[in-house]
Specification:
- The protein is mostly beta strands.
- The protein folds into 2 domains: 6-228, Sandwich (Jelly Rolls); 307-460, Jelly Rolls.
- The protein has 1 helix and 33 strands.
- The strands form 7 sheets. Strands 23, 24, 26, 29, 30, 31 and 33 form a 7-stranded antiparallel beta sheet that branches. The protein has a 6-stranded antiparallel beta sheet with strand order 10-20-12-18-15-16, with no helix packed on it.
- The longest helix is centred in the N-terminal third of the chain and has 4 residues, at 6-9.
- It is elongated.
Amino acid sequence: MDTLSTADRAPVKLTITPLGASVTAYYPSASGEDRLASVGLWAYVRAQGWSDEAGTLTLEDSDDRTTWATVGSALTFTADVINTFDWTALTKRYWRWKYVNDGTAQTIFRLLEDKAPDLNAVPAAATNLITLQNAAAATANGAAINTVGYGTVAIQVSGTFSATISFECTVDGTNWTLLPGEINTGTRVTSTSATGIFLFNVGGRAQFRARISAYTSGSVTVKGYATALGAGRDYVTVIGTVTSSGTVTGTVTGNVAHDAADSGNPVKIGGTATAALPTAVTEGDRANASFTLDGNQRINVASSTLTSNPSATQTRPNNATPYTALDVVGQDPAVNMTFTTTLRAANGFVIYGASLEIDVAAIPTGMAGFRLHLYDAAPTAIADNAAYDLPSGDRAKYIGYLTFLTPVDLVSTLWAKDDGERLGGRLATGSVALYGILETLGGYTPTASAVKNVRLLIAGV
């Protein structure tokens, strides 16, 4: 059986012949190389070179050695440094390297090629930095790192400049999109206007570049390298502390199935144990689970079973000024009745019972029923004996009203119940209170300094 020899895998010297000014040359020839010409079926190629003049290196491939297409992006050669066209996947049968020299003749030129039959033969990391921007002083795409078969790109931005460098990737070699990376402080960014070291996940992308998208002054240099993907590893075991920044995608599973005896040290739900009820947080905030001191988790059952029985008391003025029907029965100066519930802030509710107690010994002539107007926030207070009104500024606060029947005389006390109609609503965000204004439905002469008490029976929903 034929095998791939060590010589087949060794770097190949493509040329050591300098090129003249503005000359275009093809390596190893204009007709290119055949992927089937060796025992190994070449899948990846890479080139490295040195020139004392700038130039451009492009990889091209073809199915017929007549029509050639560019693979990825061209690499701009920087003079007097090692330039690397990193590992790139071949998709057609033939390939060749195209080099275009700049306007000055070379005196030194070296170009080498590496070939690999599969991804496992690609070195784990690029051993030479790739220059993406070399003291650039204008907006420019710069050179690209070919990232097929690689998982991570690390770059360093240096220089003194006022410019924006945008980090981009592509799959098809034509359409580029922003790629978020992690700066050495842990922040994820898609561009920078400052120097620093940046790390990118390039798995599944074909190329990466650091494009100067905006330029004002100075010079920008960007250098980097790619590191290969791991060999089939799909999990990791960590002992110690893990700090994560950005978005982590994965699946966490326990080591014991449902209804099996607990063992080991699985991750369990945690929270805070307190003797008192937890303090309410702002709506939309993240909150801790809450436990009693004996480890039982607190559960809010207000949505269906919790009831509240708040009350409010007022004393009318020390006068006997007659009321006209639809006047407010309150205090002077004006004060709203406040019903502080035991429901949670913003909880829905239904009022399914209410009573009115008036601490006088006889029913005044003309006294009829009453209305209790309710609000989810404090309305404009209305003084005793003034006509009730729902002004435009209080409309959004208004929940509705309960109607009390004509009170009955219990000798030393007058008492009235509601008419049986239910009233529902929702507490305001951050509030557990309702507010009320009492209105008489009949005109009568009141008792001076009479005390009245209203009690509500509320169920949370």
